[in-house]
Amino acid sequence: MTTTRLLSLTRRVHASFRFFCQIRCVRCFQDVPNNLALWIAEQRCSRKTREDTREDTTKSGTRWGHPGRLKLSHSAYPPRSLYRSTPRPRASRRREQSTLSTHHARRPASRPLIKLQGGAGVPLAPLLSYSYTTLHSLPSPRSVLLLTDQLIAMGSYVQAEDEIPVYESGAEALQKLQEKWKSTAAPFPAMYSSVLGGIVLDPAMMVLPIDDHMVHRGHGVFDTAMLLDGHLYELDPHLDRFLRSAAKAKVGTPFPRDALRSILVQMTAASGCRKGSIRYWLSSGPGDFLLSSSGCPTPAFYAVVIPSDYDQCRHGVKAVTTSVPMKPPLFATSKNVNYLPNVLSIMDAEERGAFASVWVDEQGYVAEGPMVNVAFVTPAGELVLPDFDKILSGCTAKRLLALAPRLVDAGLLTGVGTKHITVDEAKTSLEMAFVGSGLPVLPVVEWDGKPIGEGKVGKLMLALSDLLWEDMKSGPDRVAVPYK
Ligand SMILES: Cc1ncc(COP(=O)(O)O)c(C=O)c1O
After folding, report:
1. Of 277, 307, 337, at which residue does a domain stop?
2. Of 355, 362, 284, whose CA–CA distance to 323 is shortest?
3. Residue ranges making up the domain that contains 259
4. Ligand 1 atom with minimal separation from the 335 CA
5. At what angle do helices 395-403 and 235-248 cross, to 10 degrees?
6. Residue at 108 is within a domain
7. Could you give the C-alpha distances from 341 to 149, 265, 331, 484, in angstroms and in order?
C-alpha cells in the first residue's frame, strides 16, 4: 500500500470516527477522545504485525489473524494532548503505558487502562476490519466503540431518553442480529444446541435461552478439546472429566455419553474448521427463574467450534501470585461455569504485566493458575506438579505426567510425580511452566518479580513441551474429524 493511499485511508477513518462514533470507556462510561482510540488502534495493529506469530496472541481463540496490510498509519507518538503530565517517553513500552493511562485521571501512569499486549491479544482486528469494510455503513450514528482492557468492540449505545425498538416478530429480531454479524466474518463456524436439536452455522442463531439456569444461576459445567490438523485431541479424557463435573454439580445430560461425543464430532465436521478448539456445556436447562433447577424439565447440551491459530509455546512468560481468593475444593475440582474467581485472577495478572496468576492456598501450598496447571523441575531434577485434590485435574497435566517418564529414561529427569509443594519450595525450582490445553507447556521465567532458575526458558520444559506437542500432532489419542 502506498504512503499516499495509507494517509488517505487514515484520514477517512479519522473522519468516520468523528462522524459516526461516540467512543466510551466501558469502565467509567466517559467519552474517550477519538484520537486516543484511533492511536490505540494503530499501535495494536502495528504490534500485531510485529508479533503475529506469538502464541499468546493466537491462543485467545481469535480468528481474525493479524491485520498485516491493514495498518492504518505510523504516528510515532500519540498526540501530545493525550499525555497527562508524562514527558515524551523513549521506550515503546513506556509510550503505551503513559498514553493509555491518560484517560483515567485517577489511575497511576504505571497501570494502563488499556493493555496492548498480554494473554488476550484479541483485539483490534475486528475494529480494523470494521473500519475498512463497513465504517461507512454503520448501523446507526449511535454506534459506539467501547474501549475495554482487552478489545475495542462495536455495540449500540443507548441514552436514557431513547425509545428502545420492540421487535414483535422473531424474523425481525433475527434480521437485526444477522445485520450485526454481517459486517464481520463469523467468528464461530458452528454451534450445537439441544434446545434447537441441531447444529447451526449462522452466528446470529448461536444463542442460549434466557431462562436457562446456566445463564442466570450458573448451574452448568463445561469442558473443551483441542482441534489440530483436523483431529480432536484427547476428546475422551475431556468428556470423562465433563461427566464427572456434571455429576458433582448435579447437572443431568439429555443424551448418553456416546451421543454427546458423536454430536461434538459431527459439529466439528460441519464447521469445516481444522485448527482451534471445541467447547461444550451441560446445563440444568431452561425452565424458570427460581434458584432450584427442579423446575427445568430437560438438561441442555450446547457446544461450539472456536477456530484459532495456536502453536507450540517456546517463549517464557511471567507469573504472579494472586490475592483473589481460591475456590474451595468442591468447586475447584470440577469444571463448572462459575469462573468469576478465575476471571478476576487472570485480570489481576494482566494488570500486573503477567501472563497468568498462581493460586497459593491458605497453608502456603501452590495450587494452579486460573486456566492452567503449574509444573516445576526441582533442584534435584524431578518434575513435580501440585496434587489434584484441591484443584482441577488438568487433562494436559495428566498426559504430561504419563509422557514425562520418557525423559527419566533418557536421563534428563530424575523422577516424575505430584505432591503438595509449598510456594517457597516452588520458587527455588530450576524451571517452571504453565500446563494446559492449547499451550500445552508454557515456560514461566519469572514469578512475583523474581527469576525462576536462571530466568530463561529451560531445556527441560522445552523437552516436555516437545513431547506433548508431538503427542498432539501424532499421538494415539486423536479423533479424526469426518469432514465432508
Ligand atoms: C482452573 C483450571 N486449571 C487447569 C486447567 C487445565 O486443564 P486442561 O489441561 O484440561 O486444559 C484449566 C483449563 O481450562 C482450568 O480452567
Report:
1. 307
2. 362
3. 191-307
4. 16
5. 130
6. yes
7. 18, 31, 11, 41
> Rounded to whole angstroms, what are the CA distances from 22 to 134, 146, 157, 178, 437?
16, 9, 8, 23, 39
Atom of ligand 1 minimally distant from the CA of 238: 10
pLDDT at site 184? 64
Ligand 1 atom 15 nearest Cα: 371
State which of 330, 334, 346, 437 you would mutate to test the pocket of ligand 1, scoring each by most atoms of that ligand within 8 A of its C-beta.
Answer: 437
Determine which residue's CA is closest to atom 2 belonging to ligand 1.
371
d(CA 268, CA 394): 23
- Out of 48, 59, 71, 335, the active site residue is 335
Based on the fold, state whether residues 105 and 217 are members of the same structural domain: no
Model confidence pLDDT, tens digit, residues 338-378: 999 999 999 999 999 999 999 999 999 999 999 999 999 99
Where helices occur in 51-204 by DSSP H, the ranges are 55-58, 92-100, 124-129, 170-182
Q: What is the mean pLDDT of the chain?
A: 77
256: in domain: yes
Candidates 48, 52, 47; CA nearest to 309 is 52
The residue among 191, 213, 210, 218 whose CA lies nearest residue 202 is 191
Nearest CA to ligand 1 atom 16: 371
Nearest-atom index, ligand 1, CA of 370 = 1
Of 299, 255, 303, the C-alpha closest to 279 is 303
419 is annotated as an active-site residue = no
How many domains are contained in the chain? 3
Among 380, 357, 399, smallest CA distance to 460 is for: 380
Crossing angle of helices 3-20/34-50, nearest 10°?
140
User: Where residue 296 sits, what CATH number does that domain have?
Assistant: 3.30.470.10
**111 and 229, same domain (yes or no):** no
What number does the ligand 1 atom closest to the CA of 237 have?
Answer: 10
Distance of CA 76 to the CA centre of its chain: 30
Q: Mean pLDDT over residues 27-32, rounded?
A: 49
- For every residue of 1-17, DSSP letters joined together read --HHHHHHHHHHHHHHH
Q: Global pTM?
A: 0.74
Residue 20 has pLDDT above 50, yes or no: no
Q: Which residues line ligand 1 (CB under 6 A)?
A: 342, 368, 370-373, 392, 394-397, 436-437
Residue range 226-248, pLDDT digits in tens: 999 999 999 999 999 999 999 99
Q: Ligand 1 centroid vs 107 CA: distance in angstroms?
A: 33
Domain-ending residue, one of 138, 156, 174: 156
> How far, in Å, from the CA of 437 to the mean position of ligand 1?
7
Cα(367)–Cα(374) distance, rounded to whole angstroms?
8
